């Protein structure tokens, strides 16, 4: 039973104290970059909750894979073999192109690009804030994941790492409102910035003058400026262009190359040029 | 660690797990505010001692789980629980339909505060689906009260 006379600060004092504490936390977390280290510790502390939340879907997928029928496995096997053969063929051509590229670069005196390190990670099936487009991945600082590391899927750029914990990390996707990536068109090599729209299937191209040569269906690649994303990975294709003369810029929307609403396996890359600088 | 702390921590743990467990995209907007309901329950059970602090801590945990700026959900929880904890005697004596209506209002306050903070920091557009959880929270309040009182009786909390 609560005693009638209570010692300690009153509930009103406690309330205002908590309000001030929350506001201070907000300001610190949004301004100070050092808050990222605190996040690392905090993320590791809530790991049990995330583990429990991911358990049911993990159990279900383990069950379904171990109960797959023989016919289904044979069919899956065949399909994977076909895809493997096709990709191996493409890889052979890529290797010869890379060698030719190296030769041309050395002739021109340009620096040779080395093979970058890659790692596959899986998206942990945990719900996230509906407002921001982030996914939790099962690799962390123990796997050499670092802040700002670029992340791809098999069809294009997905985003960058914004938080790192010991065994997990958070990836901010291209479609998030607060994200922007420097891009260039494949066709004309003109540089733009593609920013998130808040919707998973759309990106906006910022500050495009009316006179620029853009067509629906143009492919945009990452341009490598800003030193976060390496050059040449697909970001999206132009979906629509609105020419409104009363506005200062064209309204261009892109469809992201990667299927952001169904990311499952992600590729983390290390940019060797970046690592050499550090 | 006494029985009260154990039941508070256990109920908050289960509520946090339910809050982030994956759901189909069609049902997800209607996910009830489990952590808010648990915090409100403890707010009216032990108002003078723990309510606001527990709410703030639970809110910080939610911020870490969601990846939002630390303090957004904490502030929303603290405000909502403060409103009910300062009137706990009146609230405890309300019949269930009135309690459900109060939970509806509390959930609205909670979502509006967390939206406002995120709007202030990231300029988020508002979407009416952000408020859908109000309904499920209010509807599931009686069941949550029943479960939580069973839990605390099991731990023989006074």
Keywords:
A: alpha+beta; six-stranded antiparallel beta barrel; 35% helix; B: 158 residues; mainly alpha; 72% helix; globular
Mean pLDDT of chain B: 88
User: Oligomeric form of this entry?
Assistant: heterodimer
Helix-residue proportion of chain B: over 70%
Please count the helical segments of chain B. 7
Element-level helix/strand string of chain B: HHHHHHH
Q: Give the termini separation of chain A.
A: 61 Å
Q: What is the tally of beta strands of chain A? A: 12
- Classify the secondary structure makeup of chain B into a structural class: mainly alpha
Q: Please indicate the percent range of residues of chain B in DSSP E strands (runs of 2 or more).
A: under 5%
Q: How many angstroms does the end-to-end distance of chain B come to?
A: 15 Å
What structural class results from the helix and strand content of chain A?
alpha+beta
What about the largest sheet of chain A?
A: 6 strands, antiparallel
Shape of chain B: globular
Low-pLDDT regions of chain A? none
- Total of DSSP H or I helical runs spanning 4+ residues of chain A: 5
Task: Characterise this structure.
The complex is a heterodimer of chains A (278) and B (158). Chain A has 278 residues and is α+β, with helices and mostly antiparallel strands. Chain A contains 5 helices and 12 strands. Helix content of chain A is 35%, strand content 25%. Chain B has 158 residues and is mainly α. In chain B, helix 6 (96-122) packs across helix 7. Chain B starts with a helix and ends with a helix. The mean pLDDT of chain B is 88.
